[in-house]
């Protein structure tokens, strides 16, 4: 996001040809993708999409991965009916597009989703993960929402909340070494602020040689040079959730 002419030149990456194992539901005013594991559980994870929206097959693939690891997973439309960003859009219009899609203004939707998970799915322990825009939203929730247990922010845009680091819940930050949009200086500064201000468990991990979106926007089978790090990032995410949920 350092490039001023293209403030978030996110490459959609490998668009997965993936239909999903879950179903689309309506939760009050929000559409959502929900997938539940075969065995009953009281653990759930909210999945917050990136700028490409809740219907991106890659994000549903990640939600289903959570389900195969025993979690109820829900990926709501946090743009609430507004159009997701399209790779064909003009990047010059991105800042205007973003003004009506603030990663720090999703509290109403999160409350609705939490109520649904508790009352309709029997969830008692609830965590959250998010990618890019959604990763920034995770940081916001970890700073503010008392009803979540833990969070994993995957290449969350630091500049959205860079002045705040007093986390309420254990949080895992995944970053890519060669992320054009999140310079390593920002990651270092985040680590310093967390060290000074954070009273809960946290971890910041940088994955060598990786680029923005590597955990969910790259396929292992067509990115063999990145496969080890894609796998590692996904395993680390699951391990963190298992530890705190």
From TrEMBL:
It is found in: Cytoplasm, Cytosol. Its main location: cytoplasm. The keyword Cytoplasm applies. It comes from the Eukaryota. Keywords: Cytoplasm. The keyword Transmembrane does not apply. One of its GO terms (molecular function) is hydrolase activity. Residues 30-245 form the Dienelactone hydrolase domain. One of its GO terms (cellular component) is cytosol. Belongs to the dienelactone hydrolase family. This is Carboxymethylenebutenolidase homolog.
